[in-house]
Amino acid sequence: MFVRPIVIALFASSATLVKAQLTANATVYTPGLGVCGVYSSPSDYIIAVAAPIFDSYPNPICFKHIIANYQGRSVDAIIVDRCADCPGANLHFSSAAFSTLVDQSAGHIYGVQWNYE
Ligand SMILES: *[C@@H]1O[C@H](CO)[C@@H](O)[C@H](O)[C@H]1NC(C)=O
């Protein structure tokens, strides 16, 4: 039987153009002195990232920018802290960053897509 080689070049080239998105649940937290060593306030565009992500990223993850998308809105925020009790790729946002995505009264949101800038 004659077997044709399968063309995979298209997959390889498109994969480099689109970063895989991480899916997270997100909420607001009250920032202070984060593990990255800086104080942040609710008006700063910052986040705490889930411990599994924080701990496994090749150091340093501190001060990396992420872009988070939710229901057609997006925000650019800087990682300043580690969320010890967040599973998966979940995020805690400052109120400034959270309210760029959704009304703050939403409290918790599900299905935020994010990746490093
Ligand atoms: C996100 O929230 C949903 C709804 O509560 C839950 O089923 C899911 O397990 C959560 N995922 C993570 C990673 O926390």
Which key phrases capture this entry?
signal, alpha/beta, RlpA-like_sf, RlpA-like protein double-psi beta-barrel domain-containing protein, 117 residues, binds 2-acetamido-2-deoxy-beta-D-glucopyranose, Barwin-like endoglucanases, Expansin_CellWall, globular
Lay out the secondary structure.
Layout: H1 9-15, E1 22-28, E2 46-50, H2 51-56, E3 65-70, E4 73-83, E5 91-93, H3 95-101, E6 108-116
Parallel strand pairs: 1-5, 2-4
Antiparallel strand pairs: 1-6, 2-5, 3-4, 3-6
The structure holds 2-acetamido-2-deoxy-beta-D-glucopyranose.
Description:
The chain has one domain (20-116): Barwin-like endoglucanases, CATH 2.40.40. It is built from 3 helices and 6 strands; from the N terminus they run H-E-E-H-E-E-E-H-E. The chain has helices at residues 9-15, 51-56, 95-101; strands at residues 22-28, 46-50, 65-70, 73-83, 91-93, 108-116. A 6-stranded mixed barrel has the order 1-5-2-4-3-6. A hairpin with a 2-residue loop joins strand 3 and strand 4. It is globular, with a radius of gyration of 17 Å. The structure holds 2-acetamido-2-deoxy-beta-D-glucopyranose (NAG). Residues 25, 87-88, 90, 110 line the site of 2-acetamido-2-deoxy-beta-D-glucopyranose. 2-acetamido-2-deoxy-beta-D-glucopyranose (NAG) binds at residues 25, 87-88, 90, 110. Keywords: Signal. It comes from Piloderma croceum (strain F 1598).
